[in-house]
Amino acid sequence: MNVSAPMRLDLDGDALVRNWKALAALSGSAACGAAVKADGYGLGARAVVERLAAAGCRDFFVATWAEAEVLTDIGVSISVLHGVREDDMATATGAQSLRPTLNTPEQVRRWRSAGVGKCDVMVDTGMNRLGVSVEDVAGGLLDGLKVDTLMSHLACADDPGHLLNERQRSAFAGLAGKTDARRMSLANSAGIALGSGYAFDLTRPGLALYGGVPVAALEGRIAQVVTPHAQILQRRSVKAGGTIGYNATFTAPRDMEVAILNIGYADGYFRGFSDTGSAHADGRRLPVLGRVSMDLTAIGLDTAPHLREGDWVAIDFALPAAAAASGMSQYELLTGLGQRYERRWTAGSQSSG
Ligand SMILES: *Cc1c(COP(=O)(O)O)cnc(C)c1O
Predict the structure, then answer these.
(1) Where is it found, in Gene Ontology cellular component terms (predicted)?
(2) Atom 3 in ligand 1: which residue has the minimum CA distance?
């Protein structure tokens, strides 16, 4: 890109790797993989895979073949969670390092009749989303398949007291030895925090790698990875009684200094941040004033009157707090990050402005 962008994502590569190592340690003797679907939860899948592979991560998960195909040259093992449609078979049978996660008896038949290589299999143990049934597996559906990893997925891992967690764990554990799968895998980020009984042979964190904190047990162990920054496009003085932005939701209680930022809901800085979000510059907190627009957001400069047109501010984006402020989930905040940012990876800790 030759044109410089007026908004950027600072992406802390060290924090990403530290988060993976923390999750790997919590996974005990199980291997720790990485879910990199939806373009690495919005950060950029290639950059994430390269960094985690260098740190020792060996198992990656995407949703679709299009997501997998663009990563094949990195040479890591990738499982495609949505399995194989007929239209995927040419891609699926052509790439050594990719394998499907089969989800339905139809997908199992399709893969078996192609007589091809290794696959993973998803078993539904109570979420009623993707997966073949426990009964089908016990009844021999997978016989003769070369299964690398037998998986299931937890519906309520972010609610540690929920009874479904233990029900799913024990249903899944009951499949041990019933297939010739090389490994078993159940836990996502929050599942890792449920304890060693949930780790099996391989864990599959996504959210927490990227700074998300789905459960209290992970607080203090996960570092922020993503910090959006935006440039000031205009400064203005708003007189007492003046309103700011669409629908005039904010009325200035006194004469105020305001900056208009080059960032908006089209960048994933959602409307939920209207009047609740904030930014920082030079250690000062700058509140969002009024509605977030598609491409623009107003902040108050009362605490930082020295800021000028062209200066940069860091958007407050610690995921648990940003989710609370915006009413969006931590997942939506990450995967909503738009394409207009310059994505700038740093090796060191985050800069603030
Ligand atoms: C997305 C996903 C994960 C990762 O979940 P997080 O909650 O982001 O840690 C793991 N396994 C499967 C099957 C998934 O779809």
Answers:
(1) cytosol
(2) 188
Tokens 């040479």: give the residue. Answer: 75
Q: Ligand 1 centre from 158 Cα, in Å? A: 12
Strand partners of residue 77: 59
Q: What's the CA gap between 334 and 270, in Å, rounded?
A: 11
Helix (H) or strand (E) holding 314: strand 312-315
Which distant-in-sequence residues (6+ apart) come within 8 Å of 286 by Cβ? 259, 278, 279, 280, 299, 300, 301, 303, 304, 313
**Which domains, from first to last, does the chain contain?**
12-216 (3.20.20.10), 226-346 (2.40.37.10)
Residue 296, pLDDT score: 98
Strand pairing category for 31-32 and 202-203: parallel
Distance 35 CA to ligand 1 centre (A): 6
User: pLDDT (tens digit, 9 = 90+) per residue, 250-288?
Assistant: 999 999 999 999 999 999 999 999 999 999 999 999 999
CB-based contact 346:13 (threshold 8 Å): yes
Burial of 242 from C-beta contacts in 10 A (0-12 / 13-18 / 19+)? middle
